[in-house]
Amino acid sequence: MDDFGSEQRQRLLAVYRTTIDAVAGDRVVRDYLEKAPPAAACVVVAIGKAAERMMKGAADALDDRFQKGLVITKHDHLGAACDDPRVECLSAGHPVPDEASLRAGRRLLEFLAEVPRRSELLFFVSGGTSALVEVLPEGVGLAELERATGWLLGSGKDIEAVNRVRKGLSCIKAGRLARYLAVRHTRNLMMSDVPGDDPMVIGSGLLVPHPPEALEIDFEIPGWLEELLGRVPKAPNPADPCFAPLETRVLIGNRNACEAAAAEAARAGLESRVDERVFTGDALEMGRRFGKQLTGAEPGLYIWGGESTVELPDDPGRGGRNQALALAAATELAGRNDVFLLAAGTDGTDGPTNDAGALVDGGTVQRGQEEGFDPDEALRRADSGSFLEASGDLIHTGPTGTNVMDLVLGLKV
User: Fold this and answer.
1) Averaged pLDDT, 212-217
2) Pairing state of beta strands 406-412 and 300-309?
3) 255 three-class SS
4) What is the pLDDT of residue 1?
């Protein structure tokens, strides 16, 4: 790629990276435990894409009160916390669960049975948990789980709808895991990757009581999936004694990331505007809307937080929702030299790719076309990643240690 707007692109990337550091799991957990330290020795469980960094923060903050820990995270997301001999680390598949997800589920139940009676349990739950750990009913295996997950991810349903079905297939989700706590005092501490920061939705609510209406599936599903759902034991009623020793708290969410981005913009001398609404909906519609808004905006940094969706064709190409949003925005920015847009996951991944998202500008469309790609065809085929690789606009961070939905940053100069 040429140096089209390179200085402004670097400014946007710097805001994004500083924002990610501000909401990293180890920092969030250390801050919380310094303000609310446990009185007893602790056993720690951390699950999700931010689990390893959350475990590192817990071990650092608890020091000699830390007895042992279990990390369950995405493949290739293990790090320094796993060098601690007190910590057992497992990795599993995401966004589609794999055999390791089922092994992790079995090990989680064994681990809970081993917790000393007088120890306090700390659960740290972050996004990705729904795929990473699972216990299935008798007679249901990985093939059925993969089929169900594949249908859900390609359905275009929002995260709440997807999780309702995931909960219905699980022996531990929707509060069912609380039955395995043996009435131990437990703190359920969450990093939110969902709109509204609803504890029942984050990680499919492993330890959160659900009223029956919260588990109703009010949209059409295939008959084979409905049959699988009928095999799962009912979730415990919110009045069940298994929830009595539980304390649930959301530590951080997307709003915190937006605020951190605004703070970094101020330090960089940029006037910023944060959209208070959490964006949801079709990625292509969102991208075009943000692109149009930027072209008519006053100079400054515009910050949106949320999570879009993509309905996949039968044979999708490469990319994720942020890449689709960014490429759709680029079609609105084409030919201009005063607008730039970054769309990326805070977790460092976008769909089934190793890219976090993309940073596009007024030259993106031309650069991709010069390499033989058509933006409309790429969007139709869900192949935005191939176009954005050709145009030189993909962002790669590796695992970030956080997961608070997606961040869209628009710069008008």
Assistant:
1) 90
2) antiparallel
3) helix
4) 43
**What pTM was computed for the model?**
0.90
Picking from 316, 154, 174, 318, the residue whose alpha carbon sits closest to that of residue 243 is: 174
Euclidean distance between CA atoms 100 and 86, whole angstroms: 21
The tokens for 382 are 């869900």
For 126-222, list the strands marked E by DSSP. Answer: 186-191
The whole-angstrom distance between residue 12's C-alpha and the CA centroid of its chain comes to: 21
Name residue 57's amino acid.
G
The residues with which 208 forms a beta bridge, in sequence order, are none
Task: Please say whether the beta carbons of 54 and 46 come within 8 A.
Answer: yes
N residues, the chain: 413
Q: Between vectors from CA 92 to CA 87 and to CA 98, what angle results, nearest 5°?
A: 150
Element (H, E) at 43: strand 42-47
- Comparing CA positions, the residue from 301, 312, 372, 308 lying closest to residue 339 is 301
Determine what percent of the chain is predicted with pLDDT higher than 70.
Answer: 99
Domains of the chain: residue spans and CATH: 6-19+255-412 (3.40.1480.10), 24-252 (3.40.50.10180)
Q: Which two tokens stand for residue 212?
A: 């029956």
Instruction: Check pLDDT > 50 for residue 69.
Output: yes
| CB crowding 257-281: b at 16 or more within 10 Å, else e | bbbbbbebbeeeebebebbeebbee
Nearest Cα residue to 183 out of 106, 109, 118? 118
Half-sphere exposure of 306 (CA within 13 A, CB side): 19
String of DSSP letters for 336-375: -SSEEEEEEETTS--SSSS--EEEEETTHHHHHHHTT--H
Give the position of tokens 């000699």.
Answer: 64
Place of tokens 């601690």: 84
CA distances from 194 to 146, 243, 406 (A): 22, 23, 10
Higher pLDDT, 157 or 361: 361
Q: Read off the tokens for 294.
A: 């930027």
Give the DSSP letter string of 123-146.
EEE-TTHHHH---PPTT--HHHHH
**Least trusted range by pLDDT, from 165-174, 252-261, 327-336, 339-348:** 165-174
Task: Name the CA radius of gyration of the chain, rounded.
Answer: 21
Q: What is the mean pLDDT of residues 21-38?
A: 97
Task: Confirm if 144 and 228 have CB atoms less than 8 A apart.
Answer: yes
